[in-house]
Amino acid sequence: MALFNKMLASIGIGTAKVDTRLDSDRYLPGQTVQGKVEIRGGSVEQKIEEIYLTLHTTYIKEQDDKKYTQTAALEKLRLNDPFTIAPGELRTMPFSLVLPNDTPLTYGRTKVWISTGLEIKNAVDPSDEDFIQILPGPIVHAALLALTDLGFKLRQAECEAVSYKLNHHRPFIQEFEFIPVTGPYHGKLDELEISFLSVSEERAEILLEVDRKAKGLAGLFAEAMEMDETMVRAFITKQDIPQMREKLNQIISRYI
């Protein structure tokens, strides 16, 4: 019977189970996720080589005019040295995982989750997934709010593969696409995209793509040649928060 149980465990039947319990499911980038991992032994004794937590998100990559969804690992945490778990035994391991400052916000179709995996020799490795909400920190929140104050409406938020020209440390950036519905840019811009290339408690580097509305034949030609779009890199700081609307307005207005 023991041999039969080992055979079943090797194909994932009666093997150890893992369940991750988070203290919360809402965080800001840079905060620490705390919780515990519960491992329940299966029908046979098994050696757990490694327990690891991985922070994931997805992004869109375009190739040959087709779009593909890719998964990116943002952070990985190893929890243990190898140990043996007895049949039916329950072990609990607390953990703390610091979210990177550039963890994408869970706006639009953007998902962020923590996967927990066990590496078990000669067996199917069990896993668990826990989705979390990522909310904006003070600087990012102020910037997004300032754009709505300027009459823009968020149309889409998505992580997309990044151009090598940006020399970015991730394979993607998160883009927030706004359209002007009221205010000073209504009728002047088709859309405005903002990305946060780096974020800390004190400042953020932003990338703005200003897409001007076509006017006349010259404007239509510029739009066809994609000459109506301007890429702008700038910094915003914690000190800018009280006047963020004015700060972004000064930057955008130079390129219409």
From TrEMBL:
<dbReference type="InterPro" id="IPR014756">
    <property type="entry name" value="Ig_E-set"/>
</dbReference>
<protein>
    <submittedName>
        <fullName>Sporulation-control protein</fullName>
    </submittedName>
</protein>
<dbReference type="Pfam" id="PF07070">
    <property type="entry name" value="Spo0M"/>
</dbReference>
<dbReference type="InterPro" id="IPR009776">
    <property type="entry name" value="Spore_0_M"/>
</dbReference>
